Amino acid sequence: MTTSITPAAATSATASTTGSRGLRIDAKNLVRRYTRADGTVLQALGPLDLSLEPGEFFSIVGPSGCGKSTMIDILSGLAPPDEGSVSADGVPYRGVPDGVGLVLQEDASFPWLSVRDNVAFGLKRLARRPDDLAERVDHAIDFMGLADFAHARPSQLSGGMRQRMCIARTLVLRPRFLLLDEPFGALDQQTRLLMGDELLRIWRETGATVLLITHSLDEAAMLSDRVGIMSARPGRLLEVLPTGWQRERDSTVASSAAFGALTAHLWEQLRGESMKSMRGNV
């Protein structure tokens, strides 16, 4: 099941739910290492450089174990790099910056709470004024098409509806930089396509900068302005490809010849890295 969490420090963003300006993100020379139980050091990521333009939709694809989730932890501000730096609109990270929202695959919803109370959870912790809280929660629920299910429990929703609830819980905090780590991984293919169209709508209407981590080459090619291909561990960016799609796009781009050529190129570049990862030859 997929769900979303947004770091509490992200909640002071002041941009409106629609028409906000996305953050510019600059990551330079990122390196992350882990110490194993036997004392040996594993380099999971880097060195890696990445710059995201304000309002850009950028996707990352790469083999399993290449450090994609480690990169998300760093770019969300939840974990510092061992080397390198990250800035948002030119301001270096100090923990989680204002305006950063995170959507994860793991289910962190509260099954005993209604959709409305799940969406409101982060704002309630900020002791928002009741009238302001109600207006923002109602807007986020309506924005995600869940007004008729505001009092339902998560167990009463379909997988796609639960995901929309979780995205609403992030959107209510008005992120200007939205990071998504395999948010649709547990959904069937038809629902994933529909949720992809929904994500594009959210991106256009909020103006947020979006970074999507996905194992689906089709998903990355369909949704993005640019796609980054990561190497096997330690993860580095091998190539960044512009897709050439118009901003007013949807899942129908998947029927074009250009889409087929793009996904073929992604797989051509990624296949060797995936084989390295599977063989442990990294």
Q: Topology of this protein?
A:
Elements: E1 25-35, E2 41-52, E3 57-61, H1 68-75, E4 83-88, E5 91-92, E6 100-103, H2 115-125, H3 130-143, H4 159-171, E7 177-181, H5 189-206, E8 209-213, H6 217-223, E9 226-230, E10 237-242, H7 257-279
Parallel strand pairs: 3-8, 3-9, 6-7, 7-8
Antiparallel strand pairs: 1-2, 1-4, 4-5, 9-10
Helix pairs in contact: 2-3, 2-4, 3-4, 6-7
CATH topology term: Rossmann fold
Instruction: Count the E strands.
Output: 10
| Rg, Cα atoms, Å | 19 Å
Q: Which runs of at least 5 residues are low in confidence (pLDDT < 50)?
A: 1-19
Please describe the biggest sheet, giving its number of strands, its sense, and whether it closes into a barrel.
6 strands, mixed
**End-to-end distance, in Å?**
31 Å
Strand line-up across the major sheet: 6-7-8-3-9-10
CATH level-four homologous superfamily name: P-loop containing nucleotide triphosphate hydrolases
The number of helical runs is 7
CATH architecture level-2 label: 3-Layer(aba) Sandwich
Shape: globular
Share of helix, binned: 25-40%
Structural class: alpha/beta
